[in-house]
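Sample intake — Circularly permuted type 2 ATP-grasp protein
Collected from: Bacillus taeanensis
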Amino acid sequence: MVMMAMKNKNLFSEYGNQSCYDEMFDQSGKVRPFYERLYQQFSKMGAKELADRNFLIQSQMVKQGITFTLYGENLGDISAERTIPFDLIPRIIPEKEWAFLEKGLKQRVRALNHFISDVYHEQNILKDGIIPRKMIVTNPYFLPEMVGLDVPNDVYVPLSGIDLIRNEKGEYYVLEDNLRSPSGMSYVYKNRSLMKRLFPELFFDYRVRDIDQGLNDLLSSLRSLAPHHKKDPLVVLLTPGVYNAAYYDHVFLAQEMGIELVEGRDLAVVDQKVYLKGIEGLRQVDVIYRRIDDEFIDPLAFRSDSVLGVPGLMNAYRAGEVALANAPGTGIADDKAVYAYVPDMIRYYLNEEPILKNVPTYMLSKPEEREHVLRHLPEMVVKERTLSGGYGMLIGPKASELELKEFAAKIINHPERYIAQPTINLSSAPSLAGERGAAARHIDLRAFVFMGKDIRIAPGGLTRVALKEGSLVVNSSQGGGTKDTWVL
């Protein structure tokens, strides 16, 4: 009788109303129309059956080696390797909503690409006082080696990962721009594959937009960068190797796009050209999709102790004999202080009003903004400008008195290193909490944008879930999970 009751328990019977915007339920607790069929199907199945299916999914992920490496307090210390928890209740985005996001994302990436090109050439945006020059030229991601260097088709960011959130009213905001080497695309495709296998009936009921074209769009963007407009370029993915946190991501993308997965030792530079070493001899490489940070890509140009990169790679790049994606130095636009100026970039370069909003951002190098943040620190999220993945971050409402005190001291000692934002109660969505049924968990969305001859976006992207109750940190590096994202 106990087992029968557990099997028949409605998945949503204990799902409570939230103080934030809920993706599936409106404020009165009524199911939003575009979730109705999914709600009915999952309610009929019950918590026990869904928990069993979830167990099958996690087993498949282990067998397929779909893993992510977690690090300790020191970022170089590997603490664990695990599967990214997959939540089998999908997130649904209606067609009109996605069309709005798509338009805003294209506008934003176009402006960011203009900005990167400008700061490495004429620097008009600095001359006109739109962005403080000091913020750029003293930035650790600004590469003097890129000044005056023309990149293929003037495309600096063939792949971007733009993180979106919703506030309490359901309005979308851009939280971060990830332009160096955004990770997570492989999980978008694996999530979809797992969902189709376990819930084929749902894909008959819903007209979900296909995502397979996204990998072709990425490959097209990479191929379009080939020097001398080569028709059949050799494209490779340069990985730091098996110990990198996102190594599964590298392997998956290389396999699915049909390109070579290489490490630095597999490449050689001869007469300012890059070659792939193999049993058939040397083959000239035209495009390198790199998943290695700027400082490690070439020990002759940057860190001399790097064993991950390729000696002489930057000389070949300057000579126009190889393309790098994303271009070195794009991290200048990842800076969390530069982020605050993206709406100004859109107006400056495109002469348009921003479609997607920024989260209000305080620049702690400004005394009056710093004082305001210090007075309201328990209400703020504070981020170290050049870190990502949830590191170097304070979430004021969740912090202890000691943590608040320690972070206040950091801000006072080095205000230029930090920005602050008011805490936004991220939207929530139902997530499977074992046989107890569904529970509300906060989510965000990483949209993947491909820039080549035109700009394309993979429908949906990666919904990330803060699996700990009440947590606002969704990053995989901090223990977050993922959902399949359906665009209707």
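Post-analysis note: Residues 114 and 349 are 7 Å apart (CA to CA).
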